[in-house]
Every structure is written in C-alpha cells, then in structure tokens.
Design goal:
8-stranded mixed β-sheet
C-alpha cells in the first residue's frame, strides 16, 4: 500500500461536499447568513452553467484571514469537537470554500466596515491557496463568484448540462427553505438567460413567518394556513426544552397539494430532512383529507446538546437523541389544529350542529343551555343531550317574523306534529319533519325540572330510535335495531369465516410443494398491495406475451399458463386498464376559450414549471400565454379551460397539474378529475363480466397487459391477476 497524494485527497473529499449546483449555492448562502447579512442576492447566468454569484452585506472578511480563507478545515466557528454541542451557525467544518475552489474557479470580493468603500478582490487556486489581491470599489459585505463549475469533472458537468432544468428547480426549492426560515434577511435569486432576467425567489425584508411563507408559495395559501404553537409540559419533555411552531394548511381539499413538494422542516433554524416526522404529518393530514398532501413549514426548537448535525456533508440529516418524545409532541401539536372540534351540516332552512362537550355534567352546564337566543341573527338555539356521552346536538331555527304576519309559537313553528303520508312528501318536507322531531325530543327531555340546565347524559340504549332516510318514512318509522349480544355475534361470524378459509386452503394442498420463489414472492397473498408488489418482482411485463390462454372460467376470468404456473386473469379489470392507459396517453382534452384571459397568481417556482411545460398543459386543455414584461408570479394568463362531458375544469385543476410536474418533471400527468373520467370511460367500453369470449379476444386481452406501464391493477384498484396453481411436471 501507499499513501494517496494531497492533491488527490483534496479532490476526492471536495467531490463529496459539492455534489451538485444546489449544494454549491447552499454553501455560499449559509456563509452569508452566518456573517449576519440582512440582504443577500444570488445571481446565476444560464441557470448556473456560466457563473454563480452570491453577494451580501455582512461583516466582510478581515485582511488577516485572506491567506487562510479557502484552506481546508480553517474556520472561525469552532475550535474543538466539544464546541459542536453549542454551535448555532450553519457551517462549522471549514470545508465549503476549499471544496468550491476544487470544483470551480472562485473569486472573492470583500470589504469590512473599516475599509469600505474600498474592498479587495481575492483570487485562489484549485487547492484553496491564496494567489493575488486587487483593490476594488465595494461596500461592506462579501461577494463570491464561481465559474467553470465541475469543469475538471467531465461526468458531472455532462450530467449538469443534461439535467440543468431539474437542477435549477431543485435549487429554487432549496433557497425557498432558507428564505422562509431567515427572518432577518431579504433573499433574492435571479437567473439571467438569453430571454432576460427571471426572479426566482424574492422575500420581503423584516416580514413575519407567515408573510415570508406567502411570498415564497403564493398569496393563495394565506387563508388556509393554520398556526402551530405547542410547547410540551416540562415533566414530559425530559429536559429537551422543546417547542414546535410554524404553519400547516388546513384539511380542506382546496388547501392541499397533489404532491408533497412544499413540506419543510427546520430544527433549530436549520433546514433538514426529517422523514419520520414528514411521514407522521402526512398520515395525520390524509386521515382527514385522503386526496391531498399538506403544505407546511414546521420549526422545531430543541436543546442543541440532544441533537447531532455532523452526520452528512450537507448537514441535512440530523440525529435526535429523543426522537420518540419529539414525534409524540409533534403529534399532539397537529392534533390540536387538524382534528375538527365541531361538525355542521344543513337541513333545509335550519342548521343542526354536533358539538363535543365534556362528559362531566357539571362542565356541560357551562357549555350549552336548553334555549338560548341570538338577537343579532334573530334565531333560536335548541339543544339536546344525545345518547352518546359527551355529545350535545344543537338546532338553529330562524324566527319567522315579518310585517303583517303573526309570529308563530314555538310549537307551531318548529315542532309540527301533523301527520302526513310519506308518498305525498318531498325530500325537503321530510328533512323539515326530521329536524322537527330531533328538536321536539330535545324539548321534551329537557322540559322536566329546570329547562336551562342539561341533564346528565344517559347511557347508550340497546334499542336505538328510528332514523328517517330518504322517502322511506313509513317503512323505517317502525324499524328498530337490536344491538344485544352484538360482540358475541360478530365473534361467531369471524370464527365461521376463519373455518371456511381453512377448509378451502386445505383443499388446495398438493402432493408437490409449490415453487419456492413463488411462495417467497407472496403471489398467493390475498392482500392486493403485497400481491401486486410480488407480481412485479417475479413476473416481468413481457411475460404476459408468452402466456398461453387455456380458456374462460365462469364468463369472467381467463385461465392462462406460463411454464408450470396457472394464472387467473380478470377479463374486465385487464381490458379496463389497457383502455385506461390508452386514454391517458393519447387523449387530447377539448378546451373552452375564455371571453377574457384570466391572469393567474402563482408562486415563482410554479410559474417557471408551468412555462417550461406549456405543451403538457395544452395537452390537458389548459392554454396559457406568457407576458415576460410582468412581475414574476403574474406572467401567466389562462386563455382556455378544458371540459369533458360538459364538466368544465378550473384553476385548481391547473395548479394540481403544476404540482405534479414540480414533483416529477419527466411525467405526463393528468389531474385527478380527468383521471376519474378516463377511468369511468375505460370501464364502460371494456369487456364486462358475463361476456363470453373466444380465444382470439382472450389472447388479445392477455397480451395487451405486456404493453402497459402498470398492468397489475385496474384504475379503481382491482387486481388483474392472481397465481392459481402450480402444475406437476407430468401434467403438461
């Protein structure tokens, strides 16, 4: 063995620190923030291919540090390893500038408060050694300019040029995170191309956290953002000094995004990747809004001695000593803002509200009363203690008063007891009758004793009162539901099912053991997701073209053979998936031109993505025009909107498409409403269960599966195929 020379070691280590365009800008941005800068300008030429420049108004660099500025592991942040526990700066290893010198040509221009307006232009070689200095005009602060990024790394520079659009968008997303968390700094990033200058990020100075979030993500998110402010009790935090703050979008569908690209975590003011916490937030959010992902910027403040940020070169992976306690605190903080406290639904002209109250009757008196009056809105509030402990039902009824009209009594107005035949009632009349019965029972139950108090909630009765549904009033009125011995009956039902399943499995036992790979893969599993995953591992899509069709079973399934294995294929699900993917790929959605173009307000990143993927949006029916003379975020105007089957799509569908393109720029996405319509069309035009098929049609259905991107499930999630049987060698 022999020692590696210093130049090779320097290049090897530097290549691990600066791995992309975004990490190069990130290191310079962090240096500017550490210098106390309040104004930071990031300027790129040709998205960073030509040059990168980061300027700030920080403290500047003293003349004493000129020669050692870009040397490896020279820093002013720490002096020993123990200082890591109290470090409060972004950088501390002294690797950034040295590594930047190794992968590019670096020039530093700086001036301190004492030397301004005269500064120095400093030049360094690829080893980080000082070369020369030249006096220049410069206000207080520092500017670092990089050119020829990865010029001596042919593979990286080729990859950078090939994927520059994706790298630039990733850089914008990274700078956005620092713009959100840096409350004292105004950060601006511009990109100069042949078409002119484009402002990618711009934050207002001295804005609050919500203001900076709105400046980065767009003004439309402001009404939907909910404040997070949670500090666990001292006895549960175990000396963590934990505090959780920030903002998260509420659970309305229009507040979320189709992708998870706008989700930011900060630990002690440092942007980081926190996959466990991100998974927790998404699971809690999607339990309330399954179709969307939340937008959030969550800042976690924790005792610095309980975390380790020195894990990876980019310092985005953080090790937390008490991660379980932190996740529990985060879960409690989210529960306070995501879990609904009350539910409101309308019944004709009245409104019934279910509200959670204390199960303690002493506390319940302080929450509701039997009859309240809201003079401002001229309505009466009637309450009922339901049979469920801790739940009180309120009914808001409008008082019908007017000129020349005698005011009705409460019984006449709200509690009409006159019988009427169900067949002569409209749905609105039945809704009124149902609401009246609910409120009438409330008054009858609370009329005994003092009417201003709420009785103690009664236990859940075995016979529940009838519920009126639709127009089946006479039939349902006399129905009762017997809940006695429910647990034992359910247990017996489960036992019968388990017994039947065991008997059916016993019948499938063959003298010859099934193939080990098939069993390991779990193809026989009944769980759809696991079975689909196993099929994708063990059966390639091209294998469908090799399958031999045996015949049709029960006019709904195709039996096919591949070597020793028999498979049962759902003829409807398979044909539906083929038709669906054909529609997804080839369908061009019709558009409805607007009388007047509608100007769109978007975040700068979303706007850049929309402009870059203009053709994709046009294929989805959204025709846009771009006015480069307008300010960033307002350059795009909508000329036409798509429609399918008289359903007109809106700007929310457009933003969903843009969000999907942000997550995966190489995809050809469809908005969720279009996808559902395509799935419905594919379902109607496909072979149905019950259709008798000849060999030619069955073979075509099976072979079509080899042409699909994902042949394992239909658009609605129904599996297309299951492993049926392993043939003996003497059977074929």
């Amino acid at each position: 063995m022999q020692a590696i020379d210093k130049d090779t070691v320097h290049r090897l280590c530097s290549g691990q620190v600066i791995v992309s365009l975004s990490t190069a800008v990130k290191e310079l941005l962090e240096n500017s923030l550490d210098s106390g800068a309040t104004v930071i300008d990031i300027k790129l030429k040709d998205s960073g291919l030509t040059s990168i420049s980061v300027s700030d108004n920080g403290y500047g660099i003293k003349e004493l540090d000129y020669e050692t500025l870009c040397r490896k592991h020279w820093t002013s942040k720490i002096s020993c390893f123990e200082d890591l526990e109290g470090v409060n700066t972004f950088g501390f290893r002294g690797e950034a500038l040295s590594s930047l010198c190794a992968v590019s040509k670096a020039v530093v221009t700086t001036a301190t408060e004492e030397t301004a307006p005269v500064g120095m232009k400093l030049e360094y070689d690829h080893n980080g050694e000082f070369v020369r200095k030249t006096p220049v005009a410069r206000e207080k602060g520092t500017t670092v300019t990089l050119t020829e990024l990865f010029a001596k790394w042919p593979v990286r520079v080729q990859d950078l040029r090939k994927n520059i659009s994706r790298e630039y968008l990733h850089l914008v997303g990274l700078v956005e995170q620092y713009a959100i968390i840096s409350d004292q700094a105004r950060i601006t990033m511009t990109n100069q191309t042949k078409g002119g200058n484009t402002v990618s990020v711009r934050t207002p100075p001295q804005a609050d956290r919500l203001g900076r979030l709105v400046a980065v993500l767009g003004a439309k998110i402001r009404p939907y953002m909910v404040l997070l402010d949670h500090r666990p009790a001292a006895e549960t935090s175990d000396g963590l000094d934990l505090k959780i703050g920030g903002y998260i979008s509420n659970t309305l569908p229009e507040a979320g995004r189709s992708g998870s690209d706008k989700q930011y975590f900060f630990v002690n003011g440092r942007p980081c990747d926190f996959p466990n916490a991100k998974k927790l937030v998404n699971e809690l959010f999607r339990s309330h809004c399954p179709t969307k992902h939340p937008v959030f910027a969550i800042d976690i403040s924790i005792n610095a001695a309980t975390i380790d940020v020195n894990l990876t070169p980019d310092k985005r992976t953080i090790l937390i000593r008490h991660e379980t306690e932190l996740l529990n605190a985060l879960k409690n903080a989210l529960a306070g803002v995501l879990n609904p406290q009350e539910s409101v639904f309308g019944i004709n002209s009245s409104r019934v509200q279910t509200q959670l109250v204390s199960s303690n009757p002493a506390n319940a008196d302080n929450v509701v009363s039997d009859t309240q009056r809201d003079e401002g809105s001229a309505r009466r509030i009637l309450t009922e203690t339901t049979s469920v402990p801790g739940v009180v039902m309120r009914s808001y009824a409008q008082n019908k008063t007017g000129a020349g009209q005698k005011r009705q009594t409460r019984d006449e107005q709200d509690f009409d007891t006159r019988p009427a035949a169900a067949k002569h009632k409209t749905s609105e009349q039945i809704a009124e009758t149902t609401a009246a019965q609910i409120t009438r029972s409330a008054v009858k139950e609370n009329s005994v004793g003092n009417s201003s108090t709420v009785d103690q909630p009664r236990p859940l009765s075995k016979k529940l009162p009838p519920v009126v549904i639709g127009l089946c009033f006479d039939r349902v009125q006399s129905d009762t539901h017997d809940w006695t011995n429910l647990r034992s009956r359910l247990r017996e039902k489960r036992e019968r099912r388990a017994q039947l399943l065991e008997e059916s499995q016993q019948l499938m036992i063959d003298a010859e053991e099934p193939d080990h790979a098939v069993v390991e893969g779990g193809i026989s599993e009944t769980n759809h997701e696991e079975a689909s995953s196993a099929l994708s591992r063990l059966i390639h899509k091209s294998d469908f073209a090799k399958m031999q069709v045996i015949g049709q079973f029960n006019r709904g399934f195709i039996i096919a053979r591949l070597d020793q294995d028999l498979y049962i294929i759902d003829q409807h699900a398979s044909d539906e998936k083929y038709n669906f993917e054909q529609l997804q790929q080839r369908a061009v959605i019709s558009s409805q031109p607007l009388i007047r173009p509608a100007q769109l307000e978007m975040s700068i990143v979303d706007e850049s993505v929309a402009i870059e993927h203009k053709e994709t949006l046009m294929r989805n029916g959204f025709h846009i025009t771009v006015d480069e003379s307008l300010v960033p975020g307002k350059k795009i105007s909508l000329l036409s909107q798509p429609f399918i089957d008289q359903t007109l799509f809106n700007q929310q569908d457009l933003m969903e498409l843009v969000g999907k393109l942000c997550v995966n720029p190489e995809s050809a996405p469809r908005c969720e409403r279009a996808r559902k319509m395509f799935a419905s069309r594919a379902c109607r035009k496909s072979t149905m269960i019950g259709d008798a098929l000849n060999m030619k049609k069955m073979t075509a259905i099976v072979h079509h599966l080899s042409e699909l991107d994902h042949p394992w499930n239909c658009p609605h999630g129904r599996p297309t195929m299951r492993h049926l049987y392993r043939l003996k060698k003497d059977m074929y």
